[in-house]
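Board notes (copied after class):
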Amino acid sequence: MVRVLGWGPVALWAAVLFLLSELQGAGGGLLAGVDKLVHGGLYFVLGLCFAWGKEKTGSSVPAVLLLFMGVGYGALDEWHQSFVPGRDVSVGDWVADSAGVIIGLVLFSSFSSRLRGNGRSPGEGTTTTGSA
């Protein structure tokens, strides 16, 4: 059951991204470049979810496969937008999506491995006990 629940955030966030892509004309009023930051931020969360799922479930799925899944989902999301009135396909948005996934995966993995190197799990606090 932990294995299924561990990947839940990925499925939930992918559904959120799909629903956001369904919004007609979304992001049209953003300043130039801001939409790329929004795309990157949304897919950063997806990258974090992938890395968290791998960590939580103890999965042996290679990180590069998770990367391809995230980047592929971004490409499918852009294609999906071609069917939504007021939306269009943008290679620039896909690049921002991909960058977000990469950064999310790398940051989580780096943070997680540092904590494991210190003998702590990612959920443990940083407080210490003892005399001064």
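Comment from the instructor: The radius of gyration is 17 Å. The chain has one domain: 2-22+32-117.
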